[in-house]
Design a protein that fits this description.
The complex is a heterodimer of chains A (295) and B (517). By secondary structure, chain A is mostly helical. Chain A has a domain of 199 residues: MetI-like (MetI-like fold), CATH 1.10.3720. Helix content of chain A is 71%, strand content 2%. The longest helix of chain A has 31 residues. Chain B is of the alpha+beta class. Chain B has three domains: 137 residues, no CATH class; 68 residues, no CATH class; 217 residues, MetI-like fold. Helix content of chain B is 68%, strand content 8%. Chain B has a four-stranded antiparallel sheet with strand order 2-3-1-4. In chain B, strand 2 and strand 3 form a beta hairpin. The longest helix of chain B has 37 residues. Classes of the chains: A mainly alpha (295), B alpha+beta (517). At the A-B interface, helix 1, helix 3, helix 4, helix 5 and helix 6 of A face helix 5, strand 4, helix 8, helix 9 and helix 12 of B.
Chain lengths: 295, 517
C-alpha cells in the first residue's frame, strides 16, 4: 500500500486544517452570505433588513431581461461546450499523430489558454470593429473583399461572435485533456485492429472514443462550470447591449448587483445559478466518485 | 564540412522537384488565367418614383442606354438595375430604380507584365525563380538540389507578396496619384493601368474611369492557392508514402497550419496595433497591414502611464496567492495521498464542490466579507481570495503527483527516525518537484489572469493588477487601442512563456490526478 501509518487519529485532520480554513473563510463564507442576502430585504444603500421569503426570487424571475438571458445562457453554454469539445477532440487527434513541427503546434495551441480572457476579448473586439477593425483591414489588403464589411450588424451576430470567441478560448483545455487520454492508449490496440482490417472510423468508434471517455467527461463537466461562470467575454464585447439582449446570467447578475444596485435580486440569481450548476456538479461527483472507489 | 547522408540527399532531390513543380504550376496559373478583376462603374443614374415597367422606366432606360454607348470602347459594358422599395406612411409604396453601368474586365498576369504596371516585375521575378528552381532540381549536381528547394520556397512565398503588391497598386497608389499627392511619375503608371484595363483608349477620361474602379483578385484564386500550398507542405513531408497517405498528410498540414494561423492571429493584431500611431488605429481608410510608422515610443508612453506599476502589482499578487495556495495545499494533498482517515471522501467532495463556485457568482458575498475583514481594496485580500479559489486545482494536481510516487523511500526514511514532516520535506518534495512546479505556475497564471474580483475589490488605481490596469485605456467613448494592446502584450508574454514550461506536466496532471486517482 502506498500509505504512511500515523499513530494518532487526529493527525490527518491537522494536515488538512490550513486548506480547510482557507477555503471555509474565502469560499464557503461568501456562499453563506449570498444565501442569506438572497432571502433578505436589502435597501439601495446596501443595508440588510429582515427575512423576506422568496420576494427576491420573484423579483429576479420577473426581471424583464430574465427570460432572454436564460435563453442566452443556455445557447452560450451548450454551443461553447459542445462545439469546443468536438473541435478540441479533432485538434487533439491531429496533434496525436506524428508530424514535422508537432511540438511547435502543441505550444501554439496552448496560447489562448494562457492568455487572460479580458485581453483575448479586447483583441477580438477590435478585430471585428466595422470602421477600423483588423479583419476588414486584412481582407481588404488581400483583395478578398472590396469594401469594408460590418461584422457586427445585429446583436444576434454579435452574440454569435461572443460564442465563437468562447469556443476559441475553450478549445485548448479540451484538446489537452483529450490528448492526455489519447497518449495513454496502448498502440497495440490499433495494431491489432489494423491486422483485423478495421478502417479509420471503426478504430475511432471502437477504440479511441471508449478509451478517451473519462478524459472527455472531466473536460466537459469542468467546462460546463467554467463556461457558465465565464464573464469577461460578454462583458468586454457588448456589455449585454442592446437592452440585455446579449447578456448571460453572470453578466446580468453583475450589472444588477454593481450598476443597478439591486443586490437582492442579484443574489437570488446567484442562488438560481448554484442550483443549475449543482445538477451539473452532481453528475460530475457521481462520475468521478465512481473512479475513486479504489481510494 | 558535414557530410549529408545519401538518404537525406535523395529526399532533398525529391523535395526540390515537387516544390519547383508547384512553384511553376502557381506561376502558370497567375500568368495565364484571368484571375484579376477590375470593375469600373462608368455611369450611374437614379430614377426616383419609378416602378419597373412603367412609362418613366422605359424612357429613363432608353436615355441610359444611349448615354452608355460612349463607354463601350473601354470594354464590355454591363447595365445593372437596383430597385429600392420603401413603404410610405400612407400605406402606398414608393420605388426608386438605380441604373449602374460598369465595364468589367478580367486580366491575367501575362497582360500585367506587358502593361508595365509595377507589380509585373514581381511576377517576372517569381517566374524566373520558379524556372531556376525547376532547372536546378532536374539537373544532376548534388549540391544544386538544396538551392532548388530554397528557390522553390522563395517563389511560393512570393505569391502572397505579389498579390498584396498588385492590390496595393490598384487601390492605394492609383488613389494617391488621382488625388494629386504624387505628380512626378503620373503618366507611366496611368498609362500602364489604362492599357491593362481599357485597352489604352482611356485618353483624357482615364482619371474619371480609374476613380470609380474596384479591383479584386477573384475568390477562386485564393481557393486555389491556399489549400494548394498546404497540400504541398504535407505531400513534401511524406514523399515516400502512397498517394492517399500523402494526401491525408496534406490535409493534416492544411488543418494544422490554418489552426496555427487562426490562433496566432489575435497575437499578431496585438503586436501590430500596439506599434501603430493613435491616428492610424482609428482611421477608417488606412489600408496597410503593417504600421506606416513603427511607434516603439508607445511602450515608453505606457510605462509613463503606470503600466510597470500594474505589472508589479500583478507579480506581487500572483506570487503571494501561489505561496499561500501551496502552503495550504501541499499538506492537504499529502494527507489525501498518503494517509487513511474517515471523511476523506467528504473532503474530496468539498474540494470538488468548491470548483463550481466561480468568484463572479459570489461577488456580492466576497465584497461584503472583505469589507467585514477590513481587507477591501487591498492586495492581500485579493491574494487570499485567489489562493482559496485555486485550492481545488492545487490539491488536485499535487495529489496526483504524490500518488504517482511510491512511498517506499518515505517509509525507509521513517524507519531511520525521520518524522513525517521530515520525510515529506527531504524525500517526497524533491521527487515531486516537477508536479509542484506545475501547480505553482498554474496557480500563478490563474491569479495573474484574474480580472473580475479585482475590478470589484480594488478601487485605488495604484493597487490595480495589470488586467484591470489596462482598462484605463478604454473609456466610454474613446479607446486608445494602441496603448491597450501594447500593455496587453506585456501582460501576455510572461504567462504564455510560463505556460509553455508546464505544458507537458499539466497534461499528465489534469487527468491522472483527477480521474484515475
Amino acid at each position: 500500500m502506498n500509505t504512511i501509518l500515523v499513530r494518532k487519529k487526529w493527525i490527518p485532520y491537522l494536515w488538512l486544517l490550513p486548506s480547510i480554513v482557507l477555503m471555509s473563510v474565502f469560499v464557503v463564507f461568501p456562499i453563506l452570505i449570498v444565501f442569506r442576502l438572497a432571502f433578505s430585504e436589502i435597501s439601495r444603500a446596501g443595508v440588510v433588513g429582515g427575512f423576506t421569503g422568496l420576494d427576491n426570487f420573484v423579483a429576479a424571475v420577473q426581471d424583464k431581461a430574465f427570460g432572454t438571458v436564460m435563453g442566452n445562457t443556455a445557447i452560450w453554454v451548450v454551443s461553447v461546450v459542445g462545439l469546443s469539445t468536438v473541435l478540441g477532440f479533432i485538434v487533439a487527434m491531429a496533434l496525436n499523430t506524428e508530424f514535422f513541427g508537432r511540438k511547435i503546434v502543441r505550444s501554439i495551441v496552448i496560447f489562448p489558454w494562457a492568455t487572460s480572457l479580458v485581453i483575448q476579448a479586447s483583441v477580438w473586439n477590435y478585430i471585428i470593429k466595422y470602421e477600423y477593425g483588423n479583419l476588414n483591414n486584412v481582407l481588404l489588403n488581400l483583395g478578398i473583399i472590396k469594401t469594408a464589411v460590418n461584422w457586427r450588424l445585429t446583436y444576434q451576430i454579435e452574440f454569435a461572435w461572443e460564442c465563437g470567441i468562447g469556443i476559441f478560448v475553450t478549445i485548448p483545455f479540451v484538446t489537452f485533456c483529450v490528448l492526455s487520454g489519447l497518449q495513454s492508449i496502448d498502440a497495440a490496440y490499433y495494431e491489432a485492429a489494423t491486422v483485423d482490417g478495421a478502417g479509420f472510423w471503426k478504430k475511432l468508434r471502437h477504440i479511441t472514443l471508449p478509451l478517451v471517455r473519462p478524459s472527455l467527461t472531466v473536460s466537459t463537466v469542468l467546462n460546463i462550470i467554467y463556461v457558465f461562470n465565464s464573464f469577461p467575454i460578454v462583458y468586454t464585447i457588448t456589455k449585454g447591449a442592446p437592452a440585455n439582449k446579449t447578456d448571460t446570467m453572470v453578466t446580468l447578475l453583475y450589472m444588477r448587483a454593481f450598476y443597478d444596485q439591486q443586490k437582492g435580486p442579484a443574489t437570488a440569481m446567484s442562488v438560481i445559478g448554484f442550483v443549475i450548476l449543482c445538477i451539473a456538479a452532481g453528475a460530475y461527483m457521481m462520475l468521478s466518485m465512481r473512479k475513486e472507489e479504489d481510494l | 564540412m558535414k557530410m549529408l547522408s545519401p538518404d537525406r540527399l535523395e529526399k532533398n532531390k525529391r523535395t526540390g522537384r515537387i516544390l519547383s513543380l508547384c512553384a511553376l504550376a502557381m506561376t502558370v496559373i497567375l500568368l495565364c488565367l484571368p484571375v484579376f478583376e477590375a470593375a469600373t462603374a462608368v455611369y450611374t443614374k437614379k430614377s426616383p418614383n419609378t416602378f419597373k415597367g412603367d412609362e418613366k422606366y422605359t424612357a429613363v432606360k432608353a436615355e441610359v442606354e444611349e448615354a452608355i454607348k460612349d463607354y463601350e470602347e473601354f470594354g464590355d459594358v454591363q447595365l445593372k438595375e437596383d430597385v429600392t422599395l420603401r413603404d410610405k406612411s400612407d400605406g402606398t409604396q414608393s420605388s426608386m430604380i438605380t441604373f449602374t453601368a460598369s465595364t468589367k474586365g478580367h486580366f491575367s498576369g501575362w497582360q500585367l507584365i506587358q502593361s508595365g504596371v509595377p507589380a509585373g516585375k514581381l511576377l517576372l521575378l517569381l517566374l524566373i525563380l520558379a524556372c531556376v528552381s525547376a532547372a536546378l532540381a532536374f539537373t544532376k549536381g548534388v549540391r544544386l538540389h538544396g538551392i532548388a528547394v530554397a528557390a522553390g520556397i522563395l517563389a511560393l512565398l512570393l505569391v502572397p507578396v505579389f498579390s498584396m503588391t498588385i492590390t496595393r497598386f490598384f487601390t492605394r497608389t492609383i488613389g494617391t496619384v488621382l488625388s494629386g499627392a504624387r505628380e512626378a511619375d503620373i503618366t507611366r503608371e496611368l498609362q500602364g493601368a489604362d492599357g491593362l484595363l481599357y485597352g489604352g483608349k482611356g485618353g483624357d477620361k482615364i482619371r474619371q474611369l480609374l476613380g470609380s474602379m474596384d479591383f479584386s483578385c477573384t475568390a477562386w484564386l485564393w481557393a486555389l492557392l491556399i489549400p494548394g500550398f498546404m497540400l504541398i507542405c504535407g505531400a513534401v513531408v511524406s514523399l515516400n508514402a502512397k498517394l492517399s497517405e500523402a494526401l491525408g498528410r496534406g490535409a493534416l498540414y492544411a488543418f494544422v497550419i490554418s489552426l496555427c494561423v487562426l490562433i496566432l492571429y489575435p497575437y499578431y493584431v496585438m503586436f501590430i496595433t500596439g506599434l501603430r500611431s493613435a491616428a492610424e488605429t482609428n482611421d477608417m481608410y488606412f489600408l496597410n497591414m503593417l504600421p506606416v510608422q513603427w511607434m516603439w515610443s508607445n511602450y515608453g508612453d505606457i510605462v509613463r502611464r503606470n503600466v510597470l506599476k500594474y505589472l508589479g502589482n500583478s507579480l506581487i499578487l500572483s506570487a503571494g496567492a501561489t505561496l499561500i495556495s501551496l502552503l495550504c495545499g501541499i499538506p492537504a494533498a499529502y494527507a489525501m495521498a498518503r494517509m487513511k482517515f474517515r471523511g476523506k471522501k467528504a473532503f474530496l467532495g468539498f474540494v470538488i464542490m468548491s470548483q463550481m463556485f466561480a468568484p463572479v457568482v459570489l461577488l456580492v458575498g466576497i465584497s461584503r466579507l472583505m469589507i467585514g475583514l477590513n481587507l477591501n481594496d487591498s492586495v492581500v485580500g485579493l491574494m487570499l481570495i485567489n489562493a482559496a479559489f485555486n485550492q481545488a486545482f492545487a490539491i488536485w494536481l499535487l495529489r496526483g503527483t504524490f500518488v504517482s510516487i511510491s512511498s517506499e523511500m518515505e517509509q525507509a526514511a521513517c524507519i531511520d527516525g525521520c518524522s513525517i514532516v521530515g520525510s515529506l520535506i527531504r524525500v517526497l518534495l524533491p521527487m515531486a518537484a516537477p508536479g509542484i512546479v506545475t501547480t505553482l505556475i498554474f496557480v500563478f497564471i490563474n491569479s495573474w489572469n484574474e480580472y473580475t474580483i479585482s475590478t470589484v475589490l480594488i478601487s485605488t488605481p495604484g493597487k490595480r493588477p495589470i488586467t484591470v490596469g489596462i482598462t484605463q485605456f478604454s473609456s466610454f467613448n474613446m479607446i486608445e487601442w494602441h496603448y491597450l494592446f501594447a500593455s496587453a502584450l506585456l501582460a501576455t508574454i510572461p504567462v504564455v512563456i510560463l505556460f509553455l514550461f508546464i505544458e507537458k506536466h499539466l497534461v499528465a496532471g489534469l487527468t491522472s490526478g483527477g480521474v484515475k486517482g
